[in-house]
Amino acid sequence: MEEYYYGTFARICTFMTNNKFKPVRFISNNDLDFGKELRKRVNAYFKENKIEKTGDYRIWIKIIIMPMLYLAPFGLILSGLFLENLIVFFGLWLLMAIGMAGCGLGIMHDANHGAISKNQKVNNFIGYVINLAGGYALNWKIQHNVLHHSYTNIDGYDEDIAPSGVMRFSPHQPAKPFFRFQHIYAWFLYGLMTLSWTLWKDFLSLSRYNKKGLIEAQGRVYINELAKLIIHKLIYFAIFLVMPILMLDIEWYLIVLGWFCMHFVTGLILACIFQPAHVVPSSEFPLPNDENKIIGDKTIHQLQTTANFAPKNRLFSWYVGGLNYQIEHHLFPNMCHIHHRKISKIVEETAKEFNVPYHSEPTFIGALYKHAKMLYKFRK
Fold it and tell me: Which residue ranges make up each domain of the chain?
């Protein structure tokens, strides 16, 4: 599985280089002792306990629960039994939002990292759950697996810190007058995240990645992917918006409002999980030099740009797919999240031994507060 994940990345880097897109190179001043020792210890953990780095029965339980949490409320909405009680009606849409976010955090994320099963076809199939939420799996893989994981917090490369000029997530990005209010309006824009994927962002991203050569680097053909994208969007809207409007004896705008609320809550949940992991006071935002190189170890770079939060809250960790252990996820992206909690002890101890930073906020609320502080800091 490691060979698959990093082999894909290597092919993409080679292709980008050939097409004048220069990947950032990390030039280490040491002999990579930290990374080597960490991988040695983590591999020993799995070998000694005779377990795989991919998922076990626990992830398959989640694969059943989360889609049901998303689709069962939708079935109740379509039944028409709750049209007279708008509180219950909108409550079902909000319950769908919790399920949709849970599918993304706890299932789709691992699957598109190749971390659920050793069989890549199984991972690809489960990864398509993002299409049920109105997204597109290929775009997500490129933005997240390739750009975000390879170039974490590097302005101009990591699209997770490039919010289309409406907010400022890095000290290297230009300030705009209205950014002075971003710590206030950011939370509303976060709620529009999955809505933008569904309506327009996927089309823009697919076109942009095609121009950069990233679509071809994945072994895909742009026109074919565009056709698939259009078909997936039409199916999504037909099921989750048009069908309720046609079937239910209720004003159409109430259905659209419920659908909007579902996406808004989903986007807010997802943003509040991902942003406190990389845009907090402990985060570093390195830039490559004139030769497009960063002097430093790539493994240590992940610890310098990433932070954990709420490590002792096991119920919270279960729901967010172990993404409160972002350090462990970035160090071992093809490892199923069910292993993060135990692996985190090895990572933290090794980091302390090698005098490498290991940032962890005790609570989720504390992590959100620190993220809000960064939004305020970057306002100008």
Answer: 2-377
